[in-house]
Amino acid sequence: MADPKARPVTLRSIADQLGLHISTVSRVLNGPAEDGARAASGDTAERIRRLAAELGYQPDPHGSGLRTGRSRLIGVLVPRVSDLVLATIYEGIDEAAGERGLTTIAANSLDDDEVRRTRTKMLLARRVDGLIFGDARLDDAFLDRLAADGVRFVLVNRRAGNHPSVTPDDRLGGRLAAEHLLDLGHTDVAVIAGPPFASTGADRTAGFLDHYRDSGIRIPDARVLHSAFDTAGGRAAADTLLRSPDRPTAIFAVNDFAAIGALGAARDHGLRVGADVAIMGYNDTPLAAELPIPLTSVAVPMHEIGRRALELLTRLLAGEQIESERLAPILAPRASTGAGQTGP
Amino acid sequence: MADPKARPVTLRSIADQLGLHISTVSRVLNGPAEDGARAASGDTAERIRRLAAELGYQPDPHGSGLRTGRSRLIGVLVPRVSDLVLATIYEGIDEAAGERGLTTIAANSLDDDEVRRTRTKMLLARRVDGLIFGDARLDDAFLDRLAADGVRFVLVNRRAGNHPSVTPDDRLGGRLAAEHLLDLGHTDVAVIAGPPFASTGADRTAGFLDHYRDSGIRIPDARVLHSAFDTAGGRAAADTLLRSPDRPTAIFAVNDFAAIGALGAARDHGLRVGADVAIMGYNDTPLAAELPIPLTSVAVPMHEIGRRALELLTRLLAGEQIESERLAPILAPRASTGAGQTGP
DNA sequence: TCCCGTTGCCCAAACGTTTGGGCCAAACGT
DNA sequence: ACGTTTGGCCCAAACGTTTGGGCAACGGGA
Question: Is the CB of A67 under 7 A from strand D?
Answer without folding.
Answer: yes
